[in-house]
């Protein structure tokens, strides 16, 4: 009888904390702290400005912290525009577009990544071409199409043109290419069809990428001003960015109301990022790896 002994795994040797390494680490943390402060400074300024009286916002010399705290700007925002209605419109618009985009983008990406059919390369090249086109180029043709269908100032007219996105197709295709084909082949041997493979195997494995793309879609459409402003002709159909744009006039900008409204509009985005931040980072890190 032969006895086998398990060799002990050598412990990972910790690098010595030399003064040079400590200085480099301290410099790195200091640089990151400064960069984080510079990124957060506009947000901090926006929140603090929302609590300042309107007359003190543009006073000279300017101050970061308010000398007198007030909630009047928040009350004025709720009185000036139908904030609750526009908040709901924005939630319906961004949420529905995100759901449709994840469905249609993932289907198209699956076909481009896992299936073979004539014209596949041409179709992918067209997706890349649309990815490089500025969205402003397609605004007039899309608006004319929506107007011809009598969908102006309606939720279908607002949502349907955004139901898919070239970036989402490209993003998910790159992720699907990294999923082992052995899983799909095993499912085909067991008699699974393409839709079942897509829905029960590929989609669960792509959850980090789907959450990442969903956050991108939701943020973009939540903050979008141009398309809702063009397609909505009444205040009851406008989204929050379009409603807040009313506080910016040709000669006068109501900074207090604008900052208060922007602060309230930012909260859902902050909550969404906190919920999916771990999967968001994982999806960014793994997309494109094969």
TrEMBL record:
<keyword id="KW-1133">Transmembrane helix</keyword>
<dbReference type="GO" id="GO:0055085">
    <property type="term" value="P:transmembrane transport"/>
</dbReference>
<feature type="transmembrane region" description="Helical">
    <location>
        <begin position="91"/>
        <end position="113"/>
    </location>
</feature>
<dbReference type="InterPro" id="IPR035906">
    <property type="entry name" value="MetI-like_sf"/>
</dbReference>
<keyword id="KW-0472">Membrane</keyword>
<feature type="domain" description="ABC transmembrane type-1">
    <location>
        <begin position="87"/>
        <end position="276"/>
    </location>
</feature>
<keyword id="KW-0812">Transmembrane</keyword>
<feature type="transmembrane region" description="Helical">
    <location>
        <begin position="26"/>
        <end position="48"/>
    </location>
</feature>
<feature type="transmembrane region" description="Helical">
    <location>
        <begin position="122"/>
        <end position="143"/>
    </location>
</feature>
<dbReference type="GO" id="GO:0005886">
    <property type="term" value="C:plasma membrane"/>
</dbReference>
<feature type="transmembrane region" description="Helical">
    <location>
        <begin position="155"/>
        <end position="176"/>
    </location>
</feature>
<keyword id="KW-1003">Cell membrane</keyword>
<feature type="transmembrane region" description="Helical">
    <location>
        <begin position="255"/>
        <end position="276"/>
    </location>
</feature>
<feature type="transmembrane region" description="Helical">
    <location>
        <begin position="197"/>
        <end position="220"/>
    </location>
</feature>
<dbReference type="InterPro" id="IPR000515">
    <property type="entry name" value="MetI-like"/>
</dbReference>
<dbReference type="Pfam" id="PF00528">
    <property type="entry name" value="BPD_transp_1"/>
</dbReference>
<keyword id="KW-0813">Transport</keyword>
<protein>
    <submittedName>
        <fullName>Carbohydrate ABC transporter membrane protein 2, CUT1 family</fullName>
    </submittedName>
</protein>
<comment type="similarity">
    <text>Belongs to the binding-protein-dependent transport system permease family.</text>
</comment>
